[in-house]
Design brief:
Elements lengths: L2 H24 L10 H4 L16 H13 L6 H4 L10 H4 L75 H9 L18 H13 L4
């Protein structure tokens, strides 16, 4: 066999060997063993999207579990770790906080919220804070002060002391009899004393001829 043909065969053999070893190291099926693994593929465990290269922090955690758990490495233990130290657990970043998901089940959570558990620069989007509806300030109610009821003016007293239906000399005589005293029956202005003020009131009634 010519030397050039042998060299070509040897080169192809070495290339295939390298390709197979790289494919084996990448293990493209392994993302199927973590929740939402198909979202980021090999980047979940490796530093490149094609895999087969250095493992990131999450990939190292997975590698440490393989000898004892095999392909069943995903569970509450791994989900509760924070491989990249970004404050989010592996489970939170893969939308399975409790590690309850198992291979073959539908992917949990929202694929749009998945982040890389091995990269500190990749974190789940923050949960929006609900907007609080402001409590309306009560409008002050002004109560109008009640309108005071006017005190009715006392009905003027007629100086018909003897109740004979007329204001006359007999009534004047009665007024003079209690002059200076506090006779309320004769005290026309209610000041507690029968005096000239009462006489003036009496005269006014006399003058206009008021009858009871």
């Amino acid at each position: 066999m010519p030397g050039s043909a042998m060299g070509r065969i040897l080169g192809i053999t070495l290339w295939c060997t390298w390709l197979m070893s790289d494919w084996a190291a990448a293990r493209p099926w392994r993302p199927d063993f973590i929740p939402n693994g198909n979202t980021n593929g090999c980047l979940n465990c490796h530093v490149s999207q094609f895999g087969g290269d250095a493992r990131n922090a999450f990939g190292l955690q997975v590698q440490a579990l393989l000898p004892t758990l095999g392909e069943n490495f995903w569970g509450p233990g791994l989900a509760g770790m924070d491989a990249d130290g970004d404050g989010y657990t592996n489970g939170q970043e893969l939308q399975d906080p409790t590690g309850a998901w198992r291979p073959g089940q539908p992917n949990p959570g929202n694929a749009n919220l998945v982040s890389l558990p091995g990269s500190g620069s990749s974190t789940p989007p923050p949960t929006p804070t609900p907007t609080r509806t402001p409590t309306p300030t009560p409008t002050a109610t002004f109560t109008e002060a009640p309108t005071p009821t006017p005190t009715p003016s006392p009905t003027p007293r007629l100086p018909d002391y003897n109740n004979d239906g007329a204001v006359d000399g007999l009534d004047l005589q009665r007024l003079l009899e209690v002059w200076g005293a506090g006779d309320s029956a004769v005290d026309l202005d209610g000041d507690g004393r029968v005096d000239y003020r009462d006489l003036l009131r009496f005269a006014a009634y006399w003058e206009i001829g008021v009858s009871a």
